[in-house]
Amino acid sequence: MVLYQEYPPCPALAPYLACLWTCMVPAQTQVSTHRVLPDNCIDILWHDGDPHGSVAGMMSHAITVPFSRPARIIAVRFKPGAAAHFFPIPLDALTDLHPALNDLWEPGAAARFADALWSRPLTDLQALAAIEQLLLQRLREAAPRAGLVDAAVHAIERSHGAIRIEALATTLGVSRQHLASQFRARVGLPAKLFARVCRFQHASAAIRNTSAPDLAALALAAGYYDQPHMVHEFRALSGSAPLTFAPA
């Protein structure tokens, strides 16, 4: 049995983190793979088999992740757009990739933290507290960021992805091209794809929470042109049809 648990961040990191999380895969676990859906978030994972850490960049489609057993994972999940405060590179360079943390932070930083994290036995809560202290330190050292992309992210999320990017750029007082380049670098996905993932998340949640979903009506309510459009988007982003998300 895979043991997965999420934890809320401390108040100082709440604007930046969706959660911290842990995962334990016991040796006797039968599950060998796990499907991960795009969620518009970037994660840092510390794995007992890869102690220096790695980054899960933004995802443009679902992936299947193999489980090695036994395994212990300690991780942090950033809110959309917030990882830019902690990495000195354009985040679209990480899309659909899992680079080593050593390659993204200054020389030695990831290794030094890994030594502190793994050199002595720590409970999950102790390890997560150490990660929070690391992120708070990096946040203090980070350069301030402009609020344009934050405003765009919030507007897209509020609309559940049902917003035209050109209209959003006009509302924010910038050109579509300027918003597109800033958004892609700061968030890690093109704004249009980010909105598609938001819409998929909203629609799939509605299907999960409905005992007998009317897919045609749900598609229109979620901002799709029609049911075939929703089916196409679900297959493109998750690899599955909408009804696979319905309650059993």
Q: How are the SSEs placed, and which strands pair?
A:
Elements: E1 3-7, E2 17-25, E3 33-36, E4 43-47, E5 50-56, E6 63-66, E7 71-78, H1 109-118, H2 124-141, H3 148-158, H4 165-172, H5 176-187, H6 191-208, H7 215-221, H8 227-238
Antiparallel strand pairs: 1-2, 2-7, 3-6, 4-5, 4-7
Helix pairs in contact: 3-5, 3-6
Describe the 3D structure.
This protein has 248 residues and is an alpha+beta fold. It folds into 2 domains: 3-141, no CATH class; 148-245, Orthogonal Bundle (Arc Repressor Mutant, subunit A). 39% of the residues lie in helices and 17% in strands. It is built from 8 helices and 7 strands. The protein has helices at residues 109-118, 124-141, 148-158, 165-172, 176-187, 191-208, 215-221, 227-238, and strands at 3-7, 17-25, 33-36, 43-47, 50-56, 63-66, 71-78. The strands form 2 sheets. A 5-stranded antiparallel beta sheet has the order 1-2-7-4-5. A hairpin with a 2-residue loop joins β4 and β5 (50-56). α3 (148-158) crosses α5 and α3 (148-158) packs parallel to α6 (191-208). The chain starts with a strand and ends in a 10-residue tail after the last helix. The model has no long low-confidence stretch (mean pLDDT 92).
Profile the largest sheet. 5 strands, antiparallel
Q: What's the count of strands?
A: 7
**Order of H and E elements:** EEEEEEEHHHHHHHH
| Spatial strand order of the main sheet | 1-2-7-4-5
- Given helix and strand content, the structural type is alpha+beta
Task: Give the overall average pLDDT.
Answer: 92
C-alpha Rg (nearest Å) = 19 Å
Low-confidence runs of at least 5 consecutive residues: none
Query: What oligomeric state do the depicted chains represent?
Result: single chain
**DSSP helical segment count:** 8
Proportion of β residues?
15-25%
